Amino acid sequence: MKLNGQLVLVTGASSGIGAATAREMARHGANVVLLARRAPELEKVAVDCRSMGVSAHVYPVDLANEQAVGKTAARIKAEVGIPNIIVASAGSGRWLFSEETPPGEAAQMMGATYFSAFYTIRDFMPDMLARKTGRIVIVGSPAAYAVWPGATAYTAARWALRGYAEALRSDLRGTGVGFTLITPGKVSSSYFENNPGTLERLPGLGRTIPTLTPNQVAVRLVKAVERGESEVIFPFIMWVYAMFNRLMPRFVSWLIWRTGHRHE
Asked: With a threshold of 0.85, does the pTM exceed it?
């Protein structure tokens, strides 16, 4: 798919992978629609994108709120049009054991990660299906392939997102609307700075995976869209671990537990 002139909607576009993806799409000539809660940060990303000669539209919204997403989607359709590409990259949550996790925070993790993607994609899907073109991209997490101790609700939300992604892949087959699930390893975003103590819970096995920058993820994501790739797991060692996990899940689960953060 050629990106020049396409309309790309990005969730979680105020920082991290979402912001980097918006800028990378703009570098390839795509016009962007930016969604996240923080308006000032969205405006900064929009300025960067516009400096590359494309249009950038900012829509501050709580993506975990069904009614808010519905109203925002209606505005986008009326003011900008139907996106050719949707990139669902929003997500948040702390790595905590079950007993450490406030119930409300568990619900927030599910909302910011899974429901944000579901609500956004659902509201634009009928129009994309009617047009029989476009692509949906979901940014996943290694936690949806192999679990580690001390990140219970976070993992559950990521597995929900992956389950939705796999179901969506099946739903879209033969419709003309493409699908990509991209799963990077550890990313040097502000997540670990905003959640002190989280990095210490990364299993020893995970520490062997090179750290990616948000821009590296964005470059690979854009390449996957251009090539029409269905699933991307990277860097290479992350892909190797994922394949090994499919072959020997019990052993990999034990190894991650053995090198991970455990109850005292």
From this structure: yes
